[in-house]
Specification:
Blueprint (H helix, E strand, L loop, with lengths): L1 E10 L2 E11 L4 E5 L6 H8 L7 E6 L2 E2 L9 E4 L11 H11 L4 H15 L14 H13 L5 E5 L7 H14 L5 E5 L3 H7 L2 E6 L2 E7 H4 L6 H10 L2
Parallel strand pairs: 3-8, 3-9, 6-7, 7-8
Antiparallel strand pairs: 1-2, 1-4, 4-5, 9-10
The structure holds adenosine-5'-diphosphate and magnesium ion.
The site of magnesium ion has 4 residues, from helix 1.
């Protein structure tokens, strides 16, 4: 479904991605892990064609991710979103629906569905400026879900959330599982990744160190955190 082939990326003299290759299958819940600055967000930005690889290619369902048609079925929640404080959650989602070319009636239905999924129906008419961080993330997630994406890309969605917020977010993702959506998750909350995701890759300084089904990554008795520390310390 998603395929990175020998992707390299530089910013000036700095090599950010070095020969990165991996695949994600349809329906997979995939997590990309790595220290800050490892290149995780850059990988997502290349996948979305916000920035371009120096060499190599990225395919989505066999089509180059440079082509808009390849990226049609993608929902994306960026790192650190800022919702406009003066709009209500519903108004914000309406803006998104307009971008997806929905008719008025379709848009309202899609918004209802997305609000239901993220559990924000009761607060939809409050201004975003009054939302907690967890509510903002849930509205951000709703926005990424509006067009019923095949591929959902979330860049550190639980960053800065309290433990309850993290747990609620996990439960929403668990509910999406098995509905055909493919998840690409960047996260530092390894215990959550271990519970939600099927496969994980670890990247460090632009090098992809490993990618496998999570049970295969864990040596006897190890948690994902142990694997992370073992692999990152080895470098
Ligand atoms: N637009 C940019 N210009 C220059 N350097 C960048 C740019 N974007 C990212 N970088 C650098 O690329 C590296 C990887 O960044 P990033 O992909 O954001 O890491 P991660 O998401 O894993 O924390 C970092 O060293 C970062 O400073
Ligand atoms: Mg990042």
């Amino acid at each position: 479904m998603i395929r990175f082939r020998s992707v390299r990326k530089r910013y000036g003299a700095l090599t950010v991605l070095e020969n990165v290759s991996f695949e994600i299958s349809a329906g997979d819940f995939f997590a990309l892990l790595g220290p800050n600055g490892a290149g995780k967000t850059t990988i997502i930005r290349i996948l979305l064609d916000f920035t371009q690889a120096g060499s190599g290619e990225v395919l989505i369902n066999g089509i180059s991710s440079r082509l808009p048609s390849a990226r049609k079925g993608i929902g994306y929640l960026p790192e650190n979103i800022n919702l406009p404080a003066y709009l209500s959650g519903r108004e914000y989602l309406r803006r998104h629906a307009r971008l997806s070319d929905f008719s008025g009636k379709e848009a309202e239905k899609a918004i209802d569905r997305a609000l239901e999924t993220v559990g924000m129906k009761s607060r939809q008419r409050s201004r975003c400026g009054t939302y907690s961080k967890g509510m903002m993330q849930r509205i951000g997630l709703a926005a990424s879900l509006i067009a019923s994406p095949q591929i959902l890309i979330l860049d550190e969605p639980t960053n800065g959330l309290d433990p309850i917020g993290i747990r609620e977010f996990r439960m929403i993702l668990e509910n999406l599982k098995g509905q055909g959506v493919t998840l690409f998750l960047n996260s530092h909350i390894l215990s959550e990744v271990e519970r939600i995701c099927d496969t994980a890759a670890i990247i460090d300084k632009g090098h992809l160190l490993i990618k496998d089904e999570i049970p295969n990554l864990l040596h006897e008795g190890e948690s994902l955190e142990d694997v992370f520390v073992r692999l990152i310390n080895r470098k």
